[in-house]
Amino acid sequence: MGFVQKLKNIDAVKFSFGKADEYLETFSKSIHAFSMFDEGFGLGISPSLSSGNQLMQVFIEISKQNGIFIFNMNGVDLQKAKAGFENGYEEAASCDNITEWELSIILRNEDYFENTIFHNGKIEFVKELNGLKLLWN
Question: The pTM is what?
Answer without folding.
Answer: 0.91
